[in-house]
Amino acid sequence: MDFPPARQRFYQEIHQPDEAIDLARAALYIAQEEYPPLDPEEYLNALDVMAAEVEERLPPERYPLRVIQALNRYLYEDLGYVGNAAQYYDPRNSYLNDVIERRRGIPITLSLVYLEVAKRVGFPMAGVGMPGHFLIRPTVADMDILIDPFHQGAVMFAEDCQERLSQVYGRSVELRPEFLQPVSNRQFLARMLTNLKMIYLNQEDLPRSLSMVERILMLFPDAPQEQRDRGILYYHLGRWPEASLDLEAYLDQVPTARDAKLIRNLLAQMSGS
């Protein structure tokens, strides 16, 4: 199948070593498929300009906490970036171009803006994919703190993460060490795409949901649940030959899956047996 140019650019960007993937550029290629006229260079330049303005605000001695304070003042006080809690599931919160233009987003996209500006001023950070909430952390040695870009760049410790996790789920949830581990660039992008996939599923926009799943599978070709979901979307879109291939492959990978009976019923229906 011929993919749109933005999809091809996304594919090229992610098919290199993980550490070489340009997160902002890849995220803009995701957005470019939704907004074909979008020029990624315009938004990459906007991030460069932001970083240059932060540079002017940095103190001579760049202690990590002072850099964080400068980033927070600039992004949240000067520019007015804010977590869009009122319209959390607006898809525009998940497209980097919209987030830069509207200065509002969800945890992962605000994290991306923060990460990219921090990287440009020589303060590298990494994403932390805590369940239900995305954070970032400096990669500076011996600095065991996290930053919450959705909440005005609040500085957090592990105990605060435990409290935030319980807030997200509305009940006490055990904070496991792996919840606070840095994510890879591919995992970061997959989480962005998963957010959009779920938003569009809830809107019953199956073609857009499918486009997100297709790109997740570009990142992680062997992800059985995504292959299943693509097969189910193909089924509902009337693309039964493709649906059958995906669902059979899913059962081959996970023959004892909890939904195996349902998947076999779908396959039987498509085969007419």
Commentary on this structure:
- It comes from Thermoleptolyngbya sichuanensis A183.
- With 273 residues, the chain is mainly alpha-helical.
- The protein folds into 2 domains: 5-180, C8orf32 fold; 222-271, no CATH class.
- Helices cover 58% and strands 7% of the residues.
- It has a two-stranded parallel ribbon with strand order 1-2. It has a two-stranded antiparallel sheet with strand order 3-4. Strands 5-6 form a two-stranded antiparallel sheet.
- It is globular and about 70 Å long.
- It starts with a helix and ends with a helix.
- The model has no long low-confidence stretch (mean pLDDT 94).
What is the makeup of the main sheet? 2 strands, parallel
CATH class of the largest domain: Alpha Beta
Mean pLDDT rating: 94
Contiguous uncertain segments of 5+ residues: none
Per DSSP E runs of 2 or more residues, the count of β-strands stands at 6
From the N-terminal CA to the C-terminal CA, the straight-line distance is: 29 Å
**H/E topology pattern:** HHHHEHEHEEEEHHHHHH
